[in-house]
Request: fold
Amino acid sequence: MPRTTVFFYQDRPGEAPVVRWLEELRSRDQVAYANCVAAIRRLADEGHALRRPTADYLRDKIYELRAKRGRVNYRILYFFHGQNVAILAHALTKEDVVPAIDIERAIQRRRLYEKDPKKHTYTEPVG
Reply:
């Protein structure tokens, strides 16, 4: 199976919600951050084949990438674009189920991305 390319959704040039969330997490909890990065790497390695406990389908083409540290659950919501591209759209810390509002936010970002992938694909700022 070919590797899956993972991109971050961006609202505006240089502003990606999941990148910002990961940066904040890294400043608070290095181990939780490392667990999330490991889950992202597994997504890149396994793509559509990735299953529980690391990933699960939510609804409306939105999946959750799952990481944990102690009793705290971290979720990165993503969707696929084509066969081998995954877009990380939204991230949250949760206790039980992923709130509907967070899924709706990911769905909205998926729709925006599908209309204009180039505009909504995060690229690392230079300099």
About this structure: The beta strands are 5-8, 55-59, 62-69, 72-80, 85-94. The helical segments are 17-28, 30-46, 100-115.
